[in-house]
Amino acid sequence: AQKVTQAQTEISVVEKEDVTLDCVYETRDTTYYLFWYKQPPSGELVFLIRRNSFDEQNEISGRYSWNFQKSTSSFNFTITASQVVDSAVYFCALSESNSGNTPLVFGKGTRLSVIA
Amino acid sequence: DARVTQTPRHKVTEMGQEVTMRCQPILGHNTVFWYRQTMMQGLELLAYFRNRAPLDDSGMPKDRFSAEMPDATLATLKIQPSEPRDSAVYFCASGLDLGQGAFQAFFGQGTRLTVV
Questions:
Q1: Other C-beta atoms within 10 Å of B3: how many?
Q2: B98, B112, B113, B114, best to mutate vs chain A, most A CBs in 10 Å
């Protein structure tokens, strides 16, 4: 069965520090998608990025970057020079294809607090 | 700007009352998910529909919860009778089909339910 593990429950950093949020997944499928979502204190779930299993190229978007490594089944998220506005809960998610399982599975989330 | 609309945003009700939550998915998305978020359990999948047909509602307590899609623009989640343990944030998500059974979820703002 597919599974997403975010081992870090809570992380606290001081503003301007870099921080990496870990995500490890399990799947038997060869075709799948990985996602990161952000849930700020206001509560909505905001989509950040999508990656398919055939594209291991790392992605950078401003201060955000993502490292996808199939060899370790990981899809980690790094925030460079963190800011207070980055404080949120971040969820990693997995969607498999043709599995017959739940089509979208979320990790438990990592609560990031950035202190000024 | 396509978005998922959920109503009401907040609901406070007394134990034993019926609660109905509504969701308007993004036009053209044929899959709708209902999630419940609590501090203890994180994001739990309650049910999901494809082309208005329920595909999986195994995450839902059957005796009191029911989910329907009366038409392509409306999904409903009902709780009858409600109990204090149902207090949570309920999210509806509209599913973008990525092919072969994989989906990307676009979330509504959620309904914060408090049962007293």
A1: 14
A2: B98
